[in-house]
């Protein structure tokens, strides 16, 4: 067994990649890992450490082939707000506009319903969707990359994370380790003040264009409630901005207005969204879809992005895509 460094010691990127390689390869005792992760979270991870840890996870993943213009939109989770599945709905909306979406996700860890839980409640066979991920991405423009299928090294880490019961650096590593190797992303994180640190890590890893966003109330997506911290990462540099819903001509509303529940509850809300239900959930999806479409190069600005997303919902394109995806998985 290897000995972990003191959690108070800041690791450079190379050191972090080595240490997290030990952790992922089972070369450190479980109790030591738990103590190390908690202590690192309490003193706040550095951009070097996040980038190095993500490199360790990336080097151990099972990749999938994807179009060069594929995107992803996801959150780090752990924000404690238990909202409806915004990024899952955004994935359907964006993919229905012709932008390939390689959605990377998992079951719920700290929330009541993760992306996989809600999609399953909608009727998508998750195991079959995993087996046919490359096919659905190539033919439908969407897939779900179930984390457990592509990150076998995480199998021994999950029980440790569940025992800890709080977000750790592993929440931050996931969105940076998409098995499709996407170069364009919208990533929501739950700490507004941490956006520039996370953006610096993303810049170290490289990207064509990525938005790192956090609502002022600590929500891991673009929020309608007030302002949002946003880092626009291009290549190895990033620029900080303030954005709000008015930029997309959308109304403000509270986080409570999109409070979710279990998988059945969230799936019902998503189905209603796809069939035309108005309200804050729709507005939150339009706002985050606008950001994803800007990153993808499909929209020129926030208003344009929201309008493209609105048309995808109102025309029924997003709903039809879901039905085709469910049918393909059922036949797999």
UniProtKB/TrEMBL annotation:
Provide the binding site for Mg(2+) 1.
Answer: 87, 221
Q: Which NCBIfam families match?
A: trpD (TIGR01245)
Subunit composition?
Homodimer.
Q: Which cofactor does it need?
A: Mg(2+)
UniProt keyword list: Amino-acid biosynthesis, Aromatic amino acid biosynthesis, Glycosyltransferase, Magnesium, Metal-binding, Transferase, Tryptophan biosynthesis
Pathway-wise, it operates in: Amino-acid biosynthesis; L-tryptophan biosynthesis; L-tryptophan from chorismate: step 2/5
Q: Which residues form the Glycosyl transferase family 3 N-terminal domain?
A: 10-59
The UniProt gene name for this protein comes to trpD
Q: Which reaction does it catalyse?
A: N-(5-phospho-beta-D-ribosyl)anthranilate + diphosphate = 5-phospho-alpha-D-ribose 1-diphosphate + anthranilate
By what name is this protein known? Anthranilate phosphoribosyltransferase
- Which GO MF term does the entry hold, naming one? anthranilate phosphoribosyltransferase activity
A Pfam family cross-referenced in the UniProt record is: Glycos_trans_3N
Please report the stretch or stretches of sequence annotated as the Glycosyl transferase family domain. 69-318
Provide the cofactor note recorded for this chain's UniProt entry: Binds 2 magnesium ions per monomer.
EC number(s) per entry: 2.4.2.18
Where, by residue number, does Mg(2+) 2 bind?
220-221
Which EC class does it fall in?
transferase
Function in brief: Catalyzes the transfer of the phosphoribosyl group of 5-phosphorylribose-1-pyrophosphate (PRPP) to anthranilate to yield N-(5'-phosphoribosyl)-anthranilate (PRA).
Family, as annotated: Belongs to the anthranilate phosphoribosyltransferase family.
- Binding site residues for anthranilate 1: 75, 106
């Amino acid at each position: 067994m290897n000995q972990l460094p003191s959690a108070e010691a800041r690791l450079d990127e190379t050191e972090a990649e080595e240490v997290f390689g030990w952790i992922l390869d089972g070369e450190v005792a479980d109790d030591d890992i738990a103590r190390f992760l908690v202590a690192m979270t309490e003193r706040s991870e550095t951009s070097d450490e996040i980038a190095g840890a993500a490199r360790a996870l990336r080097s151990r993943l099972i990749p999938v082939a994807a179009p060069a213009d594929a995107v992803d939109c996801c959150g780090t989770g752990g924000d404690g707000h238990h909202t409806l599945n915004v990024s899952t709905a955004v994935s359907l909306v964006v993919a229905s506009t012709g932008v390939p979406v390689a959605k990377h996700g998992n079951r719920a860890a700290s929330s009541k319903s993760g992306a996989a839980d809600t999609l399953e409640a909608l009727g998508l066979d998750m195991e079959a969707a995993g087996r046919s991920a490359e096919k659905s991405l190539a033919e439908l423009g969407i897939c779900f990359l179930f984390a457990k299928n592509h990150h076998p090294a995480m199998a021994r880490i999950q029980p440790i994370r569940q025992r800890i019961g709080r977000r750790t650096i592993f929440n931050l590593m996931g969105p940076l380790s998409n098995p499709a190797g996407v170069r364009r992303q919208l990533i929501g994180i739950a700490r507004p003040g941490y956006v520039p640190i996370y953006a610096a890590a993303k810049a170290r890893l490289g990207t064509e264009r990525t938005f790192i966003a956090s609502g002022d109330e600590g929500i891991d997506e673009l929020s309608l409630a007030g302002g949002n911290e946003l880092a626009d990462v291009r290549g190895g540099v990033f620029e900080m901005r303030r954005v709000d819903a008015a930029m997309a001509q959308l109304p403000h509303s509270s986080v409570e207005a999109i409070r979710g529940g279990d998988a059945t509850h969230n799936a019902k809300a998503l189905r209603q969204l796809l069939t035309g239900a108005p309200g804050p959930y729709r507005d939150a999806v339009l706002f985050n879809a606008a950001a994803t479409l800007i990153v993808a190069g499909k929209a020129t600005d926030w208003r344009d992005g929201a309008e493209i997303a609105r048309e995808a919902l109102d025309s029924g394109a997003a709903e039809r895509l879901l039905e085709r995806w469910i049918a393909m998985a059922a036949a797999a």
